[in-house]
């Protein structure tokens, strides 16, 4: 059965998987969603005998139906190779009562590698399939991790350019150093005076600018996206939830068909939405536990049915979640509105004009599988210290937000269903916050001195990604105001 992708804001806009990957964003700011999610018709016990690449093929071939077996296997095998430091790609580690799905073993030590390692291959293959002659310009906003992972994936890929915008004062020192030292003749990195939501809004506005699109076409360019709004990001993320479930079977922790819960530290809502789509495919997930930091717009939404971004933006120790406009929530809103593009478009118009919207009671009832909560900065630090002392396991700040919320969930519900926590970044990416949480005596040391201290405490080798940037030359120095993003893109592309 062919899966067709349609816009969340216009029932008449329909494309193939490869066309959706190429476009990134639908017309009028809509997102592409599958017209139906096919059942994963492979026995879970059989999947438990497969490696990551084989599981990836089974999941992705159901969703990306206009790719041939040869094309898809080429993309998968090119992406999930020696750039990951573990053969299993995404190991599952049991600590306490939870299973941590370590998604940070790729080349940039964050979960974005899981999808952004394959997106360049999917995109270039899609361009060939659709006879695209233009250079593809990847235009991306990042709250810290997507930027580096996308830059690493697209660096020097023929027929592509990549421009990444990040909040100049809203990422960790190591996240920033990873981006501004990125090599590649086709890469550009720009810090903006503003926050992530400003960067994301600026990027969306450029995607929707018809005049800019015409000028780019005349110069042989067209935009696509590496953000989680691109379905080529979302589908690969479904894979690791299926893989985690099958590892639990392989490890004798559950029987095929048993339910699990998943906990996801959530900013833009893409990672948890991938788990939701995996359930729609047939994976037995009971509850989706949505963990927020002090920017708790999603927690408030699940509590009240009102999405309201009109609030102070808080810079936290988990910057990849410092987001007030969770773009991928739109895909879930569309689903609970009964795949009603007109209703969804109306709500998104309200969000754009007033900064808030409210869902109906009927829609709210369809969110019963979701549980939301949040962790304060103090609670996040306390969880890092507690789990280090109890299990000799050091986690990053985002994972600690998830672990804190999981504890709150169990405390409130008593639900002891086997649970997978998405561990989304290496602690080496946030050394200062992690080390100061363990002991305040580390406060006086530099970020790179703390890398060595973390290695001593954890016994985990320093990732190559960190070693590479210790003395790397800064190659990208452009900074612009949030109002000058389009002007900056024009300069970079010579328009």
Number of helices: 22
* Largest pleated sheet: 6 strands, mixed
Give the radius of gyration. Answer: 21 Å
> How far apart are the termini?
42 Å
- Taken as a percent bin, the fraction of beta residues is 15-25%
Number of DSSP strand runs: 16
Low-confidence stretches: none
**What's the mean pLDDT score?**
95
Backbone shape: globular
> From the helix content, strand content and strand pairing, which structural class follows?
alpha/beta
Oligomer state equals single chain
Strands of the biggest beta sheet: in what spatial order? 4-5-15-10-11-14
The percent of residues in helical segments reads 40-55%
Short note summarizing the structure:
With 495 residues, the chain is an alpha/beta fold.
Model description:
This protein has helices at residues 17-23, 44-47, 52-63, 69-79, 112-116, 119-129, 145-154, 173-180, 196-207, 210-218, 231-250, 270-280, 297-304, 329-336, 341-354, 361-365, 377-391, 397-413, 431-438, 447-458, 464-469, 485-493; strands at 5-7, 10-15, 32-34, 92-95, 98-102, 135-141, 160-167, 187-193, 221-224, 260-265, 285-292, 306-308, 356-358, 370-374, 419-423, 478-481. It starts with a strand and ends with a helix. The protein has a six-stranded mixed sheet, with helices on both faces. A five-stranded parallel sheet has the order 9-6-7-8-16, sandwiched between helices. The protein contains 22 helices and 16 strands. The longest helix has 20 residues, at 231-250. By secondary structure, the protein is of the alpha/beta class.
